[in-house]
Design brief:
Order of helices and strands: HHEHEHEEHHEEEEHHHHE
Pfam families: DUF6461
Strand content: 25-35%
Helix content: 25-40%
Distance between the termini: 33 Å
Structural class: alpha+beta
Strand order of the largest sheet: 2-9-3-4-1-5-6-7-8
InterPro entries: DUF6461
Largest sheet: 9 strands, antiparallel
Length: 216
Amino acid sequence: MVGPSVHPAEAQWGWIRRRLPLAGCLTFVRDRSPEQLVDHFDCDARTASMRTLARAMQEHRDRDHVRAGRSGEWAFAIEPRSLAGYLDGVARRLSAGTEAAVVSWTAKPTDYFGFFVDGALATSFEPVDPSRRDGATPDRFLPQLSEFGPGRPVPRLPSGRRDPRALSRRRRDPVVEALAVLTLAEGVLVPEALAIGPLLTCPYRSRPPSPTAGTS
């Protein structure tokens, strides 16, 4: 059985599975600087330095960190292992006076998409099941989601958990699809060369929320 073809916008985000295969979080803010993003994480900006992904992972192999840059009108923060942009509410705070988005994923998988406008949640959903949406404008990205096919609900077991067999039959990568939605709707895009190249990198002062915290 042949799966669905890869949408061009999806192809531009495939690098996240090669570079951040188990867990990660991407936070985006319109019209802000990388330095402003770093200031909202549990970091001392005075310790920040420009590092490639490879060097950052080597220097901070035992310490979580955030890497920040800018692409077009959007600043972005990459968390290689932690989920502070989502679980710590960083994206919501950064959206004050502007717009922000966050996409996170774990190995479980427990994934999240959120879009905030001036401190308020506009829409959120779990990428694996975008038919269940919350927020003030839950259908904000419905036209873009429709480009990837109807958002059919994932069947659930009597316990309320999603049927893992139904999930395994899905051909598309839901996290890559969620990032592609941001590209189509808002022009958000971080090319792989930019993501792995030198970015403002700052270690956390304390241990940030782990991929398992608050995701059960």
